[in-house]
Specification:
Elements: E1 2-5, H1 11-14, E2 19-25, H2 30-39, E3 49-55, H3 60-65, E4 73-78, E5 81-87, H4 92-103
Parallel strand pairs: 1-3, 2-3
Antiparallel strand pairs: 2-4, 4-5
Length: 104
């Protein structure tokens, strides 16, 4: 598992992994900080999984492009295609359920 911080220049390239979780967040958002800790947990250490974090304050163009109106907003991509999304903090087990549903 790798965690990448996306910019507007490399975002599309970072989506091309086998399975990618995109975490749209803001540095001033308390729920976003909680969700970041969940994403960084070793329980989801899966070699095929990449996590892309998008700071919507720093890169508002990406937030606008994906119509992000509230954070944390999570998108799940398989082979570059959006397969699921979730608004708010996801508990670890719910996050793993989505990964299992689409990644295998």
């Amino acid at each position: 598992m790798a965690i990448h911080y996306a910019t507007e220049q490399d975002f599309d390239t970072l989506l091309q992994g086998e399975f990618v979780i995109v975490d749209f967040f803001s540095t001033t958002c308390i729920p976003c900080k909680l969700f970041s800790k969940i994403l960084e947990d070793r329980e989801i250490d899966m070699p095929f999984l990449d996590i892309v974090k998008v700071n919507t304050t720093e890169y508002p163009g990406l937030g606008e492009r994906f119509k992000i109106r509230a954070v944390p907003k999570v998108h799940f991509y398989k082979e570059g295609k959006l397969v699921d999304s979730h608004l708010g903090v996801m508990p670890m087990e719910e996050l793993l359920d989505v990964v299992r549903k689409y990644a295998y």
